[in-house]
Amino acid sequence: MSIDLETAAKVAKLARIAVPQEALPALANEFNTILGFIEQLNEVDVTGVEPMTSVTPMRLKRREDVVSDGNQQAAVLSNAPDAREGFFAVPKVVE
């Protein structure tokens, strides 16, 4: 698969990246290089290989899933310019 200038411009537009017209050939070349690397990865036989979370074997840390308020109210409100009754106090904006 090869990326042409029109496709590179479309990808840049979708990514909301302003790419000048003269830079499109270099961008298309980079996309083609990336696709070449992906094609190389597709050649690797991975049958029977389990997905990993890390290159070293380890178990994910697990904790009990408990709902709590986090006991952080005082720490969070200490940064507030104005706090009342355990909440942020903000000026009224709607009358």
Task: Give structural notes.
With 95 residues, the protein is mainly alpha-helical. The protein has a domain at 5-42. It has helices spanning 5-14, 24-42, 73-77, and strands at 83-84, 87-88. The protein has a two-stranded antiparallel sheet. A hairpin with a 2-residue loop joins β1 and β2 (87-88). α1 crosses α2 (24-42). It is flat, with a radius of gyration of 26 Å. InterPro entries: Asp/Glu-ADT_sf_sub_c, GatC. Pfam families: GatC.
The chain-level structural class is mainly alpha
> Looking across the biggest beta sheet, what order are the strands in?
1-2
Total strands: the figure is 2
Q: Helical region count?
A: 3
Biggest sheet details? 2 strands, antiparallel
- Uncertain residue ranges: none
SSE order in H/E notation? HHHEE
What overall geometry do the principal axes of the alpha carbons give?
flat
Strand content: under 5%
Helix percent band: 25-40%
The value of Rg in angstroms is 26 Å
Average pLDDT score: 89
Distance, first to last CA: 60 Å
